[in-house]
Fold this protein.
Amino acid sequence: MDFSGFDVCSCGYGGCEATVGMGLAMFVVMVAGGLWFVGCCGLMDSTPPMATNIVPKRVTNLFLVLVLATVTYLAKAAELNETQLSLYFQDISAFGNPNATVIPVAGIAGKAWTFTQFGTVFVTDDYITETSDPKSPEVGRAQGMYVTAGLDGLNSHVMISIVFTNKEYNGSTIQIQGVSKQFEAVREVAVVAGTGKFRFARGYATFETYFLDIPTQYSVIRCNVTVQHY
């Protein structure tokens, strides 16, 4: 970009005569329809020098307010907390079992409603424990839906809310969403939001099948969550 023809700095401070074209670090802002540069001596107009431009004091003050707001926002962003959790989902997906925590609720007519059948929708309400032992203290519930979203039946779309009921995070939630490659050893999905102590949460979660009993269709899924939040 050619900066020739721009105003010469005339702040008079220490004999400053730097021009815009000397590579001076500066910001660009739009003021009253014109392009202005902020350099060592304040605002310099980039319009042809047909007339002398005087920057209204209110414009300068507005610019300073915007700078301060930006600095405050960046400082606040630096205060993000990071939390790492290991949770265990107690999952019973035996259809017809009165204790089932995962059941199919919709699918293609005439097709079996299975985890590998494209278009099958499952609703889940797994209880979450501190350890893999189902008798260990409950942390919360994993409530949401799984949809077999891959035509080949390999991928499911996950939409789950981790609803905490333990003392530390009671009432808070973490929202998980994304494509889960359900037959891989480790499945990674995104943490897209949160509430309570996890407001503005962003991060990721991984799922691993920690234990599986095929005859009863009971499994323990370990969920490792890493989130940044305020």
Notes: The chain is about 10% helix and 45% strand.
